[in-house]
From TrEMBL:
Keyword Oxidoreductase: yes
EC number(s) on file: 1.2.1.26
Pfam families membership: Aldedh
Protein's UniProt name: 2,5-dioxovalerate dehydrogenase
Phylogenetic lineage: Bacteria, Pseudomonadati, Pseudomonadota, Gammaproteobacteria, Oceanospirillales
Amino acid sequence: MPINGQMLIGRDAVSGSSQPIHAVNPATGETLEPTYVGGGKAEVERACELAEAAFATYRETSLEERAAFLETIASEIEAIGDELIERAIAETGLPRARLEGERGRTCGQLRLFAAVVRAGEWLDVRIDPALPERQPMPRADLRQRHIPLGPVAVFGASNFPLAFSVAGGDTASALAAGCPVIVKGHSAHPGTSELVGRAVQRAVETRGLPEGTFSLLFGSGSEIGQALVSDPRIQAVGFTGSRGGGTALM
């Protein structure tokens, strides 16, 4: 599967206009191709626009539809095969066994969330029936359940290029809950992120979901990151990283 050095905004592959991003093999010092170009406020705006539009439809998907979507993502990641592991080795210097295990963990997380979604207990549905004869005053019919918040921004980690990255636990949980996701991929492993991002993109298309259900951006934390977390359409943020990096986003 080709790595084109592009961001994924909805169904489109997009080149940025900001600073270039080069992945470097930590074992050899070699600069890896292709060169990525970070996005800016225009790309954040487009991704947020699509995510907000997608939310109206994606939040109404059935539990079975969401579960099948998560399972399709896992299958698409596995279908990449050894190319994903080889690229992750080149970008991170981590050993093959570690990355193969992390790929299994990532797909396992997605399938676990699918099982949880299907079960439905997480909705915490509560129904208090009406008591029209209650004294001193009647009680209305009261119903409660967990509902999706809205678009979620996820920040990939440097040291877990799969399990805490593009399709990691933060992304899986948000998609399971009915929330579109915009991922800011980590600049240390953009090729790995693009491969996984394209797998998610294919799953969105396969399951017939709105294109804004998922986007993948690259760029500096001070530009892309702060623009994401400050956008009023973003309702939650998943971040794994240093204390300094987290407080900078706040």
